[in-house]
Q: What sequence folds into this?
């Protein structure tokens, strides 16, 4: 059987003709645009989505740091709870200071004991503040508990816009 050799035509040779050396590679690299990240916008265009406005929650007139209300109430974080404590023990301790809307006492799946913290939700800020003031450092099953706000407002930086990400670390 005879071997068939394919030879390029003159047009194909001209179309794919390469310069000698690395000149063609340099020309190709210089003509290529460097593109980084998402968006690949042309020069002068804004980044995709930068013109969008997002909803935000209404904030109080003061921008001081302090407790932040959750959607349904004021949540207090209780830590250093004894692992053998029951939900009733925590409920009775905090019910003295106001009506408890919700109580989360998470269990460790492996051991079945308390993980050591609880979230207690009160209807009003006054009730939650009374529980924090009176129960922080007190004993529950011979172990001192720590009680503080679960959500806290951070300081507002007035020099930087909310959507400005230039200062963010990666």
A:
């Amino acid at each position: 059987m005879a071997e068939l050799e394919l030879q390029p035509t003159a047009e194909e040779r001209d179309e794919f003709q390469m310069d000698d050396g690395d000149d063609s590679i340099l020309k190709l690299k210089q003509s290529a645009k460097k593109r980084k990240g998402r968006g690949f916008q042309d020069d002068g265009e804004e980044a995709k989505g930068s013109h969008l406005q997002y909803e935000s929650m209404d904030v109080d007139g003061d921008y001081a740091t302090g407790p932040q209300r959750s959607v349904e109430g004021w949540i207090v974080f209780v830590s250093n709870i004894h692992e053998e404590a029951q939900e009733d023990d925590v409920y009775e301790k905090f019910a003295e200071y106001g009506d408890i809307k919700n109580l989360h006492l998470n269990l460790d799946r492996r051991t079945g004991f308390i993980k050591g913290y609880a979230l207690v939700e009160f209807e009003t800020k006054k009730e939650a503040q009374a529980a924090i003031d009176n129960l922080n450092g007190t004993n529950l099953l011979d172990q001192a508990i720590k009680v503080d706000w679960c959500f806290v407002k951070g300081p507002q930086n007035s020099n930087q816009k909310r959507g400005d990400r230039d200062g963010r670390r990666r």
About this structure: Strands lie at 66-67, 74-79, 100-107, 114-122, 146-149, 152-153.
